[in-house]
Each structure stands twice: as structure tokens, then as C-alpha cells.
UniProtKB/TrEMBL annotation:
Its cofactor is heme. This is Uncharacterized protein. PANTHER family: CYTOCHROME P450, CYTOCHROME P450 FAMILY 27 SUBFAMILY A MEMBER 1. One of its GO terms (molecular function) is iron ion binding. Keywords: Heme, Iron, Metal-binding, Monooxygenase, Oxidoreductase. InterPro entries: CYP11_CYP27_families (IPR050479), Cyt_P450 (IPR001128), Cyt_P450_sf (IPR036396). Belongs to the cytochrome P450 family. GO terms for biological process: C21-steroid hormone biosynthetic process; cellular response to peptide hormone stimulus; cholesterol metabolic process; cortisol metabolic process; glucocorticoid biosynthetic process. One of its GO terms (cellular component) is mitochondrial inner membrane.
Amino acid sequence: MFVCAAQRLVDKRVEEITGKLKQGEQVKGMYLTYLLSSNKLSLEELYTSITELLLGGVDTTSNTLSWTLYHLA
């Protein structure tokens, strides 16, 4: 379920970025923009990379909050 939601978000952003690139506009952004403009990854590899990044952020946030609450208790 999370993968499908992440894939929809990536698809939406990919459409925005590729549309701007086709029109010759400069696209400002960070990680996803770089990955798309470099043409080094397939779409499947792009999904995997972004999903891992999102899941990694969830883990570190939950661990930090758990640690903080433990020490506040």
C-alpha cells in the first residue's frame, strides 16, 4: 500500500518535471529532479530509490521520537 502511494506521488512529480524539461524550462529541485535529468536510472529503479528514501525517513523519525519520549518519561 505504501509503495503504491509513493509510486503515485513519484508519477505526478515525474510528469511535472518531464513536461518542463520538454518545454526547455529549467527545473529546480533536488534529488528527484537530478535523477530524472541525468537519465541514469530506469523508472523502476527510480521508484525503488525514492521508496527507500521515504521509508528511511520514517524509521529515523520514529526512532528519534521513541528515544525522546523514553527519556522524558
